[in-house]
Amino acid sequence: MVLGIDDPWVWSAYILTILSMLLCVIYGALNWNKGDEDEEAQVKEEMEWHKKEKEMEEKELGIWDEEG
Amino acid sequence: MDNYILLIVIALIYILMVGYVGYIAWKRTKSADDYMVAGRETHPFIMALSYGATFISTAAIVGFGGTAGVYGMGLLWLTVLNILVGIFIAFVLFGKRTRKIGHNLNALTFPEFLSRRFDSKFIQYFSGAVIFLGMPLYASVVLIGMARFVQTTLQVDYYLALIVMAIIVAVYVIFGGIRGVMYTDALQGTIMFFGMLILLIAIYWLTGGVTAGNQALTNLVNIVPASATANATATGFTGWTSMPALGSPFWWTLISSLILGVGIGVLSQPQLAVRFMTVKSNKELNRAVAIGGLFIFMTTFAAYIVGSLSNVYFFQHTGMTAVQAAGGNLDSVIPAFISAAMPLWFAYVFMIVLLSAAMSTLSAQFHVQGTALGRDIYETISNKKKGSSVKVARIGILIAVVIAVILGFILPGSIVAVGTSIWFGITAAAFLSIYTAAIYWKKATKVGVIAGLISGTFASFFWLVFQYKKSAEALGICKAITGQSVLITASPWPTIDPIVIGLPVAAIVTIVVCLITKPPSKEHIDKCFNGIK
Prior knowledge:
The structure holds two protein chains of two kinds.
Chain A: H1 8-30, H2 39-61
Chain B: H1 2-28, H2 32-40, H3 44-55, H4 58-71, H5 76-104, H6 110-117, H7 121-154, H8 158-174, H9 182-206, H10 210-223, H11 230-234, H12 249-265, H13 270-276, H14 282-318, H15 322-325, H16 333-341, H17 344-382, H18 390-410, H19 416-440, H20 446-466, H21 469-475, H22 477-482, H23 498-516, H24 522-528
Helix pairs in contact in B: 1-9, 1-17, 3-9, 3-14, 3-17, 4-7, 4-14, 4-19, 5-12, 5-14, 6-7, 7-8, 7-16, 7-17, 7-18, 7-19, 8-18, 9-14, 9-17, 10-14, 12-19, 14-16, 17-18, 19-20, 19-23, 20-21, 20-23
């Protein structure tokens, strides 16, 4: 019996939800500043993509929104 | 009268907040250069909450929360998958590569991404058609989840609620919200987070704490009259805090439809995959894992816990189980609990929470459906470029909204979670193999992935029409042709979800055909995977 639940298949799920959330939080925290080695190029590339998407929305959906 | 004033005040505060955030976003990013500057100071909160708000809708909160009223805490396995697969694997293993390859190929939609990666127009319009034909079901259940809540909270007619909701969504979509401006999505995500947090605290407060509340739910199965759970027990139900009998129809529905369908299907959701291409850098994706994980935990964990424990609350106060108190409709469990147990102001605030959840998901769905018809189908087949498809895309959105409303009128009760699983199952069967091959398998061939795409799609449609009881009975095609409602009536076959058949079929066909056909040219692969370590 863990946390008022008998079935190990259910209480393990209960605890795993919390552990998987912690995994995400810890991963995010450890890598908080990683992945920006070539950030300038990445951002530039993204901007190009964003421009094209906006063009698609303007021309094909007939709308234009300011932010991505 | 006072109640309506309260409602109007809460609604006005919400509208002002959304308007203010939209204005800030608009002011901050007037030109592409501003966007570049904004890009350097990355916004992991915005990306993660926008993704989360698109993923988690009224379907998850009202539909799956209500389903937990019957299936109990075993449904928490879905939260585990939602976090591990829907956030961790999606962001870390799929997101980074999707972003890079998508940029290398200038792909703007999910079908276009697959089509350019394998250099096949067929992939684009076939995928566009799957999305355009299948997604209205998902859009419809999101709308139904919202309408059920309005019906219960405001005590209005369900059909009236449905139409009013559809009009509000249509107006939101037409006036600029079509792409779900990320800033407003993030605000809606924040509102969802705190609304669910309050609800989680409240349910444990009302049932005496975590251990005491769970214990009361564990004991409940022995206290409720046997007649209250007779139908469920006959198919494998053993209690709200224990797994159903292994291999029973109840077990298959819980595991194959509810947990696997949505838990795995999330990876190949077109409206979510596109989100990865709007991320500014890998750093932002890394950071988003932390925030996304926390967000999905709070929203889904709270929904399933509240759905399960509402049985304790209703039994103590009315002597009924949650489903009985909700009039037999699973989609009404969460609305009924909030109306009965929470103060009126919270019910109104929660209505805003759900409206936020529905809006952010629906706007992304309608956007994807519009581009599926305009860009992926019409433009690809007619070979026309730029501008010519604007009318087609708009008509596509209009058709999608109308079909969603019509389905809202004709679909039966307790449909929200089932409808969501069916859609997620179809996308997993159709797209997961080709999508995984696209980002990880350089030797995957055009013929191979097309074979997998077609076989997965048709296997899952065949199963839906001829074997999966819930859909086959409703469609009636199998009955008309064979005289039986499903092909194999022996248990557990009618309760095995299409994903269990469609996904392995697609994976095996993809692998086998790719191995025996000629791999793509090195130049093309180098272009696709440029910059990926």
